[in-house]
Amino acid sequence: MRAVVQRCKNAKLYIDNKVFSSIDKGLLVLLGITHDDTQSDIEWLSGKISRLRIFNDDEGKMNLSVQDIEGEIMVVSQFTLFASTKKGNRPSYLNSAPPETAIPLYEKFIDQMKKDSGLNIATGKFGAYMQIDFINDGPVSIIIDSKNKE
Question: Annotated catalytic sites, by residue?
Fold first, then answer.
């Protein structure tokens, strides 16, 4: 599993030009799922994101988690995070899990995020064409991969 975690002031996700979900201050998480992801990947990644200290404390240091600030989280499926650009100019998405594998893992990840963070989780709609309007705060964007754990 791979995630791009972005600290944001707010985010709105649109489907068919209508607001589908939105959050205020918190995290926008773009989630990519590959073929061999398991419950272990879900638990590790969800725990890491829930406890990630990337919000400023009173001294201006990134020392607080989304839980500490009682923020919000939006999780959006993003199959393009496993794109391969090794050959040619057209990315290959063969490393992305097919929907029959990815959808159950995406749903389990959302449930795990609710459990780990104690916060409501806004989502996109798997497979839909979506547009996200958000303000990246900082900007702060972190890439986390459950296989590399770095």
Answer: 80
